[in-house]
Amino acid sequence: MKKLFTGLLITSMLSAGLVGCGGGQQAEPPAGQPGQAAPADVRTIRAGIGLNDQHPQYKGLLKFKEIVEAETNGAIVVETYHSGQLGDDRTMMEALQLGTQEMTIPSTAPIANFVPDFSVFDIPFLMPSEEVADKVLLESEISQQLLDKLPAQNLIGLAYWENGFRNLTNNKRAVATAADFKDLKIRTMENQLHLAAFRALGANPTPMAFSELFTAMQQGTVDGQENPIATIYLQKYFEVQKHVSTTKHIYSPFVVLLSKAFWDASTPEQQEILKRAAVEAGQVQRQLNREANSQYLEELRTAGMTVTEVTEEARAEMKAVTDTVLDQFADKIGKETIDKVRAAIEAAS
Ligand code: TK8
Questions:
Q1: Ligand 1: does its nearest atom lie under 6 Å from the Cβ of 231?
Q2: pLDDT in tens, 94-121
Q3: Which of 94, 136, 233, 332 is deepest in the core (most CB within 10 A)?
């Protein structure tokens, strides 16, 4: 079958006058004709994410795949892997740097281990709403300037997607105020600012890879964790957690990352398609994510969790506590980056 296909292809290329001219110029398949790329030209993106195949992140990834494969006429194939099948956020980013994997979509928090400026989004209670987050991430100059820092780390940032506002779950108590964090063993992402913020609140935070989290909660190694509602529901954390509080303490963006090696080996047309596909798929992802985040809180209640709606007063109190750690991070993140993001938020609010 493959042989037959290749034969047919060569015949059709010959008749189109595309082969046999030597000269080292590679024959481009004519535009708009699917299936014309020779098998040797097909390149594969192995795209891995940490969340499962029910999550809007995966649905966004499928949309990306659909656009890229259609618009490159099959010259780029996207293989999708969910649930940490290819590793965790950090290990997948390292694989991208080495060129042994092509794509992943981590939260910005672990990206800060490669480009510290990204920790600006880890400042607790920074982003007032999803609407403001959209304006800052999709329209501001600083959000693009942050992506521009990635190639120096052998990474290409194609677009911002949405993980969303993070909320606390735990097995010890219904957390309503800053004081309620006392002594809770909380899993955090691998990020220094998250650790410092939870320590300031009196909790006992421990960084852990996402894939280990469910078991850690089940076995009681940690009392709780924090993630958006969509994750808490779709990863079935309600099976191992009693309480959820709408702390909304951090808004987590995702960044669609590609290995620089894959990017550099792509034609300018393919680069344009990859970038646009990431942006367009992001619109779908964001929409589905918001539906999930708003719809699943009720489902968590139905599943037996106690839901504590955190008041604005309590949130302000938590913010006052976490603000005390910000000074130690200003130099690391970069004062200019912080100022620009705060200004973009101000302008969008
Ligand atoms: C998934 C992670 C996850 C993040 C975390 O790969 O680790 O808690 O919120 O969604 O990016």
A1: yes
A2: 999 999 999 999 999 999 999 999 999 9
A3: 136
Q: Is the CB of 235 under 6 A from ligand 1?
A: no
Query: Contact, 224 vs 217, CB < 8 A?
Result: yes
Rounded CA separation 18/39 (Å): 16
pTM given for the model: 0.89
- How far does the centroid of ligand 1 lie from the alpha carbon of residue 162, in Å? 11
Tell me the best of 55, 81, 89, 235 to mutate to test the pocket of ligand 1, counting ligand atoms within 8 Å of each CB and taking the most.
89
Q: Is the CB of 189 under 6 A from ligand 1?
A: yes
At residue 39, does pLDDT exceed 90?
Answer: no
Q: Cα dihedral sign for 347, 312, 181, 229?
A: negative
- In the block, residue with structure tokens 């309620």: 180
Nearest residue (by CA) to ligand 1, atom 7, is: 210
Q: What angle do CA 329, 334, 336 make, to 5 degrees?
A: 135
Give the atom of ligand 1 at the shortest distance from the alpha carbon of 210.
7
Does ligand 1 have an atom closer than 6 angstroms to the CB of 122? no
CA–CA separation, 42 vs 47, rounded Å? 16
Q: Tokens at residue 69, please?
A: 């494969």
> Superfamily for 42-348?
Bacterial extracellular solute-binding protein, family 7 (3.40.190.170)
Q: Are strands 185-188 and 224-227 parallel, antiparallel or unpaired?
A: parallel
